[in-house]
Predict the structure.
Amino acid sequence: MTTEQQSTLICRSCGKQSSDRGHLCDPVSVEKLCCNYCGGQFHDVRYHICREAMKHIEYVCSKCGRVSVDNATICYPEKIQ
């Protein structure tokens, strides 16, 4: 008998985790998440803000205050003025 290890996936937009791709809008493997600016690898890049990314921050979530470069990666985006 063999056992298959299911990989954990995370939605790049909302951060929800699942082992089934069909339950996530933008699924990526937890092991493959890396910062596009500094190249660092993290289990949850939603909360990683490096110096280079700070130069490109344009949105803030009006609900939780998390900032982002892309409005698609936060739930309630508002453009920073």
Summary: Residues 1-5 have pLDDT under 50 and may be disordered. Residues 9 and 29 are 5 Å apart (CA to CA). The two ends are 59 Å apart (CA to CA). The longest strand covers residues 9-11.
